# Entry
Amino acid sequence: MKKYTEEMKKEVVQFYHDHPELGYLSVAREFGIPSDESVRRWVKKAQVEDREKSDKKAGEASPEKKTRRCLPSGWPQPRTALEEKALTDAENAYLKKLLELRKGDG
# Structure
């Protein structure tokens, strides 16, 4: 697996944005990158970073971050969308299990 520099990744992402008619595969071929999946990941990551930067510049949290969860004391608030999703998935799994247990009692 080849390692690419951050500068190279930024150049690829910029090229992708400058040429909207090209897809991930075409951009990957243009730069000699064996997998279009790498280009897709870099573009998605850049989009997330741009969104986070614009949220910070606006001085306002994104809509999904406006409501804060009531977590047990000492637990940090989720900082990324990935952490938020993991917490939500865990909560859902817990509630499903609780419902299953309650149905068994009735």
Remarks:
- DSSP finds five helices and no strands in the chain.
